Structures are given as C-alpha cells and as structure tokens.
Amino acid sequence: MNQEPAPPVDVSLGQFQKLIRDMYFEKDQTRGVEGTFMWLMEEVGELSSALRGGTHEERVGEFADVLAWLTTIANVAGVDLADAVNQKYGSGCPGCGQFLCVCDDAEKP
Amino acid sequence: MNQEPAPPVDVSLGQFQKLIRDMYFEKDQTRGVEGTFMWLMEEVGELSSALRGGTHEERVGEFADVLAWLTTIANVAGVDLADAVNQKYGSGCPGCGQFLCVCDDAEKP
C-alpha cells in the first residue's frame, strides 16, 4: 500500500533552460526583457513573503518560479546559464579561487 | 595554434547547489536568510543594469551571480532547487499543463 516517492530528477541547467524555452519562448520574446523583468520582480516578492511566513511547500514553489523567470530572461537575452555559472564558479570562488571560500565575510563575491 | 574552447559543462541544479553549499555554507548559515536576501537584491540590481547597458560578458556574469545567491538562500532555507523545479515544471506548464504553454498571456504562471 505504501508507494515509494519517485526519485528526484536532478535536471541540468541546460535542460531546464531548454524546457522553459520550449514552453514559453514565443511569448517571452514578444514581451521582451523589460516586461519579463517585472514578472521576475513579482516572483522575488512572493519568495520574500514565503521566506518570512510561508510553509516549506510554498517556499519550494516560489524558488521554482524565481528560477523559471530568471531563466526566461536569460533566454530573451541570449545567455546560457550553464555556461555562465561554469565560467564564474566552475574554477572555485571568483573572489579567492578556492573551492571552500576564504574571502573576508564582507567580500563574498 | 588555434585552441578549441573547452566544451561547455552543463552542470545539474543539484551539482551547482552542492558546489555553492560546499563553497559558502558556513558563512551563509551565519548570515541567515535576511542578510542573504539583501545580497541577492544587490545582484538583481546589477543584473538589471547589465541588461540595460552592459556587454554580453557582463550579463553572463550577473546571471551567474543572481543564480548563485538564489541558490545560497535555498541552501539556508533547506530547499532543493532541482526538486523544486521538477515539482513545478517537470510535468508541463503549471498553468495549462502543456509542454508548449497555451495560457493566456496575462496568466503566464
């Protein structure tokens, strides 16, 4: 009677960016960067609210939405997110170059 | 003489979240959600600026930073980003359920 939950799917940034592109790109391109940025800000506000007083499930949903809208803007701006994080963080902290950051707290990049 | 660029690394959300956790978690936990959220907002502002007037390379760097700070908050809040996007977008658009969204433009989730 007990059902095992499905194992989590650890999607890659490239796969997620393609999913969002396939799902929404035509609308996103029509709306443009400015209009899409306003949607991102709305979702950031909802994330803030969920972090202050929401349930864990609400927070999970808001993180997904912020990530989706950030990805949408990346699609419109022609930025590859996997490439972006690999360039900036793939060789260690961009501040100190270490994989366990030793930057001063005020300097965390 | 010509060097081929290395192939892009399509990191998974889980791998990236672990990278950021390993690199920064001790500081992040000490700073907490509120202080970390302010860093995220600073980076969102820099992304806005880069989208308005920056170079492509500057935009790439700012997308990476926003993603890193969003991931940092997820670490502090105990949210698994891969699980979050899989729950919300893994079965299609959360508004219409389709993999090519047919929601009304005003309703895009």
UniProtKB/TrEMBL annotation, chains A, B:
The protein's name in its UniProt record: NTP pyrophosphohydrolase MazG-like domain-containing protein
Pfam families the UniProt entry points to: MazG (PF03819)
Residue ranges constituting the NTP pyrophosphohydrolase MazG-like domain according to the UniProt record: 35-87
CDD domains for the chain: NTP-PPase_SsMazG
InterPro entries noted in UniProt: MazG-like_dom
